[in-house]
Amino acid sequence: MNRPRQRDDMKDFLDQFEEAIYWHQEWYTRVMKTLLLRRPADPDILKPDAHQQCHLGVFLGASATPEGHEATLEEINRLHRKLHETARMALVAQEEGGRIDEEQFDELEEIRSLFFTTLHGLFRSVIEESLECS
Asked: Alpha-carbon distance 124 to 130, whole Å?
């Protein structure tokens, strides 16, 4: 995989990454709205490979990893997949007439928290590195 090395490469990575984070926060809002309002889930959210098709998944699959952040990116990919899987399980249970219980909700929120904390940690690290390149 190619590595962004120059300041412009890092800026491009950060711009795209920031947009992907925004869209993933919007996705999570859609999931929560669906659960709270007990609506049918959008079909794109229920797909088993939704983590690869969302804005963030496409970005992660196509973007070069900033050098030295491979382990963090692996963790982001793991948490991203787990977040989508956990949300899908809660939505499917609800669509089958069930209701998300407190344990499922807590698991979803814990994964969301870890996921977004890790995402923002990578974002911050790359910003700091790009400033060092200036």
From this structure: 10
The label of the residue with tokens 């399980």 reads 89
Give pTM, 2 decimals: 0.86
Distances from the Cα of 87 to the Cα of 7, 35, 109, 121, 134, angstroms: 36, 9, 10, 23, 41
CATH superfamily of 7-133: Aspartate receptor, ligand-binding domain (1.20.120.30)
Tell me which residue of 21, 51, 53 sits closest to 122, measured CA to CA.
21
Domain map of the chain by residue range? 7-133
Q: Are 25 and 60 in contact (CB under 8 A)?
A: no
The answer to whether 91 and 45 have CB atoms below 8 angstroms apart is yes
Cα–Cα distance, 67 to 70 (Å, whole number): 7
- Cα–Cα distance, 56 to 101 (Å, whole number): 28
Integer Cα distance of 21 and 1 in angstroms: 21
**Mean confidence (pLDDT) of the chain:** 87
